[in-house]
Amino acid sequence: MSNENIHDYNQWNKFLKYLMGRNIIRVAYFIFNIFFVWRTIVAYNSVFLAGLIPAFSLLGYLIIVIPEGHILDRHNRGTVFRISSLLLAFTYLILVYSDSLAIVYLVALVSSILSSINSDAFNTILKETVNEEKIQSAVSLSQGTNAVSELSGIIAGGILLYLPFEFLAITLFSLPVISLLFGLGKTLNRSGMVDKYGFRGAYRIILVLVPFLMLSLLLNGLFISLDVFGSGLIHIILHGTPFDYSLFIAGFPFGIIVGSLFTGKLSGVIAKTGTISILLVPMGIVLLFIALSRIIYLDIALGILLGVIVIFINIGLQTIFMKAIPDGVMGRVNSLVTIFSIGGSPLMAALFSILSNYFYFPYIMAAAGICAVVVSLPAFRILKNLPEKVSDIARLVESEGESNLIQQPS
């Protein structure tokens, strides 16, 4: 084995360790949300109050996102990963002292900040450690294990609903500590590196991404309708049990796992803009049927199908993004992209929660499905030339930066 192959092998193993650590944090995130969303809907019989938990869980990221992007581009990403895991463990420990609704909202807010920092640190480590030929494989593995961690968190959250509260507190504290141990791999120290792009260069790359950002905001905002209305649909409309709710929520990540098994065979098709645009149509139709169906197990099956469709869309979008964005500006650009992708979720979660006070909420879900179908045509135009445009701007910014360095006096 050549030195280059040994280096790639070691880098891939490093990526896998951080992947495990990131997924453990995701398990804790979903345990928290499943447990407290169901407990709130049962205690208060209010879709609005339950919907505020995912809203707060996703809103917190917007508070830290701008400084976080700079930190990830200028400092050791592995250190950021480990610190966020440690702080998250102590955040969940607050629930030992109080589990009132106000404290739950507070923990949802703070834990979302730390979980998102952890996830973004992982995404930048992926770009830093994996060579370009393996990026789609890394993205596919990341998306597939995303679903495994989500499913694990949902199942564990459902089980913990039947156990004393102390088991939940111990679990939520322990998981981030375990994640920290997986994040002990050495990563690049960026504190002394020259920034080839600067604020102006990053800004120019971001401008090219604006249509992509708006698309991400809309699509992720539509996905959150399952989180906001899932508990109400199962408990209020279908009169289901916590077990039924867990199955319904688990159906989506299970579908993602199933879909990820086929991503290798379809790798040449998934990242094409036409494929992504076409898949938005069945995604919207499935959302529509979930809203209108009154059979619990049909809704569960449709959730699985939705997961299969979404994994192909997500892998395609993330592969296009990862290949196009230079590593030196990845933290700042990834943070901004996440503002729009994750930021759409709390905005839509809050909007869906408010609308549920005035409209029959299954009809709101149906409208979300119709919206996904309508957006398929503009999505094709947005994604078609995105990688080439970003690459052109990045090369121009780099060449300008090199010229400026040459012109500076020694």
UniProtKB/TrEMBL annotation:
Cellular compartments per GO CC: plasma membrane
Keywords, sorted A to Z: Cell membrane, Membrane, Transmembrane, Transmembrane helix
**Membrane topology qualifier:** Multi-pass membrane protein
Q: Which lineage is the organism of this entry classified under, starting from the top rank?
A: Archaea, Methanobacteriati, Thermoplasmatota, Thermoplasmata, Thermoplasmatales
What's this protein's name?
DHA3 family major facilitator superfamily permease
Q: Which organism is it from?
A: Cuniculiplasma divulgatum
> Is Ribonucleoprotein there in the keyword field?
no
Cellular compartments annotated:
Cell membrane
The molecular function GO annotations come to:
transmembrane transporter activity
